[in-house]
Amino acid sequence: MHEMVKGANVGLATLSEDVGSVMVSLGWSSTTGEGDADVSVLLLDGDGKVRSDVDFCFYNNPVAGNGSVQLLGKTPTADGSEDRISFDLDAVPQEIEKVVVAASRYEGSRFGELDDLRLTLADSAGDGLVRFAVEGADEVSAVIFGELYRRSGEWKFRAVGQGYASGLAGLATDFGVDIDDDAGQDVPEPTAAEPDAAEQPAATGQDGPEAPARLPAQSRGADPVTGSAAAPPAAPQEHAAPGSADPDPVPKPARRPRTAKKKVTLPRIAKKSLADNDTWRSARLFPVSALKSDRERETRATSVVLSVMAQVPEFGRRLTAGFGAPAGRMETFTEVTLPHGESPRRPDGVVRVERAGKLWTALVETKTNGNALKPDQVQAYMDIAARRGYEAVITLSNDVALEGSPLVDVRIDRRRKHKVALWHLSWAEVVHQAQMLIRHEGVGNAAHAWLLQELLQYLQHENSGCHGFQNMGAAWVPVRRGIDEETLCQGDARALEVIENWERLVRQVCLRLGGELGQKVLPIQRARRGSDPGARRTELADRLCEQGRLNAEIRIEGTPGVLAITADLRTGKLRTSIEVPAEQTGYPLTRAKRLVRRLAEAPADLHIETLVDGQGPGPRGTLERLRPEPADLLPRDGAQITGFRLSLFKGMGNGRGSAETGFIRSVDEAVDRFHAQVVTHVEAPAI
């Protein structure tokens, strides 16, 4: 991977032949697991300004440039998470000369509170090409990480690393985005654009195509007190070194933005049924009653998913953009026969996307139920794809891929000129993306929403076989027995298998909960910077052998703390908890009473522990006992209260699967109950 320093540039074509589409990842780490930032992308013309609102891509407008740029959201990594952005460089409008990649913090936070700021760039095969470590961004709230720009018909990358003390508002203003300082003006905030948004007819008058994009004053990038932005430094010009100023910035008149096309979501509560009684079953587009074998389940599931991908562009794009597919016309196929030696191969499916006369093709191999991917099958498809010039092989199963622990080991022939990327999707990810679209973000029309709803009905049916990760593996029972009998020793490979499956389960819990809530839900990995994922899991396996506990932490956007999950294999108990910071004003008794009032609807068996400044535990008790006596939460020695830990306990399932008495189901139920009955009551940051 090409390591870059601030101000350096490099031609992408000199690093790889597969740069028609690239993936840019922005990452950072935090010792507390609480640091975060928002990614934004600006598409600039020859004057270094955005042409209109379709050229400003941020959290409320995740698609820009005719679909050539798409924010894919956060992806868990060994060090926490990364924000990934898909660029279809061949499809970027010709008027665009430069694409700026930036990130911003909000609510007074600065990048100095984060560690290991970095940008990485990978080609369409997933191979890393560029890495740039950003330094010296301590006191700024927005940073330009880098920029992609055209030179002589080719794309190059420049490492910028320029900071803005004025945040997203200052950065956006510098590139021609108007900031609305009139809080009383009714200006609609940009919403998620459709992939073909730029192809809609342009409005006229004030909403004409030359109207610059606007960022609402009350966005996260504006000043949290006044709602306005400070005067920003000028942005680097195309031929100038990063950090140089524009001597004559031309002010642009404030104009109202175009209103984004309204998107369709489905209500959570269905309309009252017209059926006579419960024995009447609604007709389903994708029936599951006739499924009797694993082969039938695989064939049906593949056809169902691929057909919906082709018919609902937003859904198909969400599933393929992260694999380097361009934004274009998609067609999908099943049971295609391809020559391979003396015995032709039949992959479960093929995805093909056409953009500007070029084709992107991926072979699809699907597994349902607990069936594992077969290395020889995947290897054969990788060889076929390489010979035929296809771009990718996508595997789809109930398993969850982990960084540094591939599901299938394949041999890559480095002598081949054409590279093929191997990607994996879990059924849980497919369900998550469908839920996010029809419940929270919306799709283009009601028919698309209905199709996605039918897809969800199919995938979530018990007969479909597409239930996500459902088995803790063969090592689960021996490890539990070894912990109970105190015979499990450090270095036991079975403990490592349990740790890997525990991580898969936690990631699936995040996907499921995030889809239900419409919020970012991510696992937190408190690992040393740059640590190897395998070494981290080995350390956790040794800790499991010593302590007999599985631990995980997940962050839910909008909640005041981290949701912790502990599975104590010695006692058979699951603990879900959250630490809520205490308000710094008011009397201690007032804080305790306010907490108890907020938890009026919480379960009586909720445990509350007072966190105090210094060593040693604070007072604790159940909510049932504390309701009449909130003063029992106060430290008797008058120690400073820093917060409260809220915990629920439940019995842990014995089986390794997701049956009624299974461990996986018990974890799902514990997290759901804790979030619904506890976290929702303390979502405000102050107690």
Properties at a glance:
seven-stranded antiparallel beta sheet; seven-stranded mixed beta sheet; alpha+beta; single chain; 23% helix
| Major sheet attributes | 7 strands, mixed
Segments where pLDDT lies below 50 for 5+ residues?
Answer: 181-260
- DSSP E strands, number: 27
List the strand order in the largest sheet.
1-11-10-3-8-7-6
Bulk shape: globular
Strand fraction band? Answer: 25-35%
Question: For the terminal residues, how far apart are their CA atoms?
Answer: 47 Å
Describe this structure in words.
The structure is a single chain. With 687 residues, the chain is of the alpha+beta class. It contains twelve helices and 27 strands. The strands form five sheets. A seven-stranded mixed beta sheet has the order 1-11-10-3-8-7-6, with no helix packed on it. Strands 21-22-23-24-27-25-26 form a seven-stranded antiparallel beta sheet. Strands 2-13-12-9-4-5 form a six-stranded antiparallel beta sheet. Helix 2 packs across helix 3 (313-320) and helix 8 crosses helix 9 (533-547). It is globular.
